[in-house]
Design a protein that fits this description.
- The complex is a heterodimer of chains A (109) and B (115).
- By secondary structure, chain A is mostly beta strands.
- Helix content of chain A is 0%, strand content 57%.
- Chain B is mainly β.
- Chain B is built from no helices and eleven strands.
- In chain B, the strands form two sheets. In chain B, strands 2, 4, 5, 6, 9, 10 and 11 form a seven-stranded mixed β-sheet that branches. A four-stranded antiparallel β-sheet of chain B has the order 1-3-8-7, with no helix packed on it.
- In chain B, β4 and β5 form a beta hairpin.
- The chains are: A mainly beta (109), B mainly beta (115).
- At the A-B interface, β5 and β9 of A face β10 of B.
Chain lengths: 109, 115
Amino acid sequence: GQNIDQPTEMTATEGAIVQINCTYQTSGFNGLFWYQQHAGEAPTFLSYNVLDGLEEKGRFSSFLSRSKGYSYLLLKELQMKDSASYLCAVLDSNYQLIWGAGTKLIIKP
Amino acid sequence: DTGVSQNPRHKITKRGQNVTFRCDPISEHNRLYWYRQTLGQGPEFLTYFQNEAQLEKSRLLSDRFSAERPKGSFSTLEIQRTEQGDSAMYLCASSLGRGETDTQYFGPGTRLTVL
């Protein structure tokens, strides 16, 4: 079966750095997406990785290791508005997005 | 900014009633997706269109669910004889459709409550 694992919940302090991990086992791989979702709102696109390595975009960076079936999302200089759920999704061999359950990130002052 | 829009935003209905939701994608996007999401879970794929053609439908989608995209622009999702288990957020997303890995952009969703 297809499986994407990410922690259910994480807590971090405003101004700090947090790393949200995602491991996956899917039938094929055509890229990995990270989305941010605030409570009651739709997911918004953050990043896409298809090759190994780190992609940096402002305060957010995303890393991929295809051999390990592993990705992380790194958030720097945390702000209160970063409190949200972060969803990892993998594009499988049928080019269908397989979603993780999301990691709820709580930022404390 | 003309992003993906969905109507209604909220729908409360009684069990057994039919409901219909509408999605208007970003204007130049050829692909349109429907997902269902329950609390604490990621989106669950329901179906997807390339222009007006419905190319894929989840095996989880019962025959009470039907979707259309008659002119390749807006789409509707209908649920017949609603059940309490249908209560969820229904999300629509669209993408350019140029290549298999193009990014999906989501609408605000329609929250359905079945009493």
